[in-house]
Amino acid sequence: MKAEKPICLFDGIKIRIYDQGFVSKILSESKKYNLKLLYDEDRKLCFPLKGHYNCFSDTSDIKNENGYIIELKNAQHNGVTKECVEITFSFHKYFNQFKQNASIFYWEDFIGVLGKVQIDFGFCCESAFVVNLEIGANIIIPQTFNIVSKELTKNLVFVKLFSKAEVEEYKNRRDKGYNNFYKNTSTITKIYAKSSQYPEYSKGNEIIRIETKLIKGRQIEKSLKIKSYADLCDPKVREASINLFKKRFKKIIFYQEELEKIIPDELQNLIKYKRVDFWQDAWRESPTKCFDVHRKKYFELIEKAGIENVSAYILSKIQELE
Fold first, then answer.
1. Which terminus of the chain is more exposed, N or C, with fewer CB under 10 A?
2. 235-248 vs 310-319: helix axis angle to the nearest 10?
3. pLDDT above 90 covers what percent of the chain?
C-alpha cells in the first residue's frame, strides 16, 4: 500500500494520567463526560467511574465506541496505588469525526489529531502514559481477485505472530464468521473484513483490516520507544511501528476454496492445506524446513489453478508499507 504521503498505522490508544489536578478537573466535569459508577456482578455500585464523550456529536445519542471512553480508577504507579484517569479513543476515527476508520490514514492527519485531542482535555503530554496502542492497516483487495473479504477472512489458516512456541497459546474467535481474534498476556491481534464493518464508507472496495494492539506499557516502550503521549509525534516511532507491523505479519496464509473446483485432482493436498492445525504443526516442527516448504507447494497449486494468489498479494502490500 504505497502512498505519496507517509502513512500512519497508529489507531486505537489508551492513555493513563495520574496527575491529581487533572483527575479533579475530570471529576468536576462529570456531566460533560457522562461519568457513571460501574456495577459489579451483584449489581452493587463500585469504583471506577466510566463515561463517554464525543466532541462531534450530542453525547446522549452516541454509542460508547463512537468517541472517547473516560475512566476514573485506581492503578499502580511506581509501587503506589493512585487515582488516575484513563482515556481510550481511535486517532483514525477522530480524524473522520468518530464515524469510521476504513480510509487510509496519513501521518500528517495523525499529527493534526494528536494536537486536537490534547486541546480537548488539556492534559500534559509528558504526564500522559501510553498503556495500550493499536497498530493497523487496511488492505484493499482488487476487484480482479473476485473475492469477498468477509468470506476470505473465514479462511485465514495461519498468521505468524511471535515465536514458534507461542503459536499454540493463541485462541481463535470467529465473530459472525469474519473476525479472527488472537490474544495473549501482552497483545491482541485481529484480522477481519473492514468492508463488512463499514460498507457505507468502503466505496465498493473489499477491505481486509489487519491490526495488533500492544496492551502493556513496558512492551510499548521497549518495542516502539513510546512512553508518553509526547513521544508519539516523533517520526522515528512511525518508522518503528511499520517495521514492527511488517515483522509481525510476515507469515500469513488464506485458503482459497475455489481451488477445489479448479484442480480436483489435488484435493488430497488441498484438504490438508485447509486445516489451521496443519500449518501450526508445520510451524512448530520447523519454520523453514517444514512450514516454508509446504507454503511453497500451496502457492504452486494456486499457480497451477491459474488464479490470483491473495496471500501473496496481501503479504506484498504489507511489505510495501512505508
1. C
2. 160
3. 55
Cell (9 digits) for 138: 487496511
Exposed e or buried b per residue across 66-88, where buried means at least 16 C-beta atoms within 10 angstroms of its C-beta:
bbbbbbbeebeeeeeeebbbbbb
pLDDT in tens, 55-81: 777 654 445 557 899 999 889 888 899
pLDDT by residue (tens digit) across 271-286? 999 998 899 899 989 9
Instruction: Yes or no: say if 223 and 244 are a contact pair by the CB < 8 Å rule.
Output: yes
Stretch (H or E) spanning 141 = strand 128-141
Instruction: Enter the C-alpha cell of residue 141.
Output: 483487495
User: Is 46 in contact with 37 (CB distance < 8 Å)?
Assistant: yes
Q: Are 307 and 258 in contact (CB under 8 A)?
A: yes
- d(CA 239, CA 170) in angstroms, rounded, equals 27
Give the three-class secondary structure for 225: coil
Ramachandran angles phi, psi of 148, nearest 5°: -95, 120
Q: How far is CA 24 from CA 18, 28, 123, 124, 205, in A?
A: 11, 6, 12, 14, 46
Furthest-apart CA pair in the chain: how many Å? 71
pTM here is: 0.87
Contact in structure between 29 and 19 (CB atoms under 8 Å): no
Q: Would you give the distance in Å from CA 159 to the centre of its chain? A: 14
Alpha carbons 166 and 194: distance in angstroms, whole number: 27
Task: Please enumerate, as own/partner, the contacts of 193-200 that have beta carbons within 8 Å and a separation of 24 or more.
Answer: 193/149, 193/150, 193/152, 193/153, 194/101, 194/102, 194/138, 194/149, 195/102, 195/149, 195/150, 196/149, 196/150, 197/102, 198/100, 198/101, 198/102
300 vs 309: CA distance, rounded Å? 10
Q: Crossing angle, helix 217-224 and helix 235-248, to 10 degrees?
A: 100
Dihedral sign, CA of 27, 29, 33, 36?
positive
Cross-strand pairs, 15: 87, 130
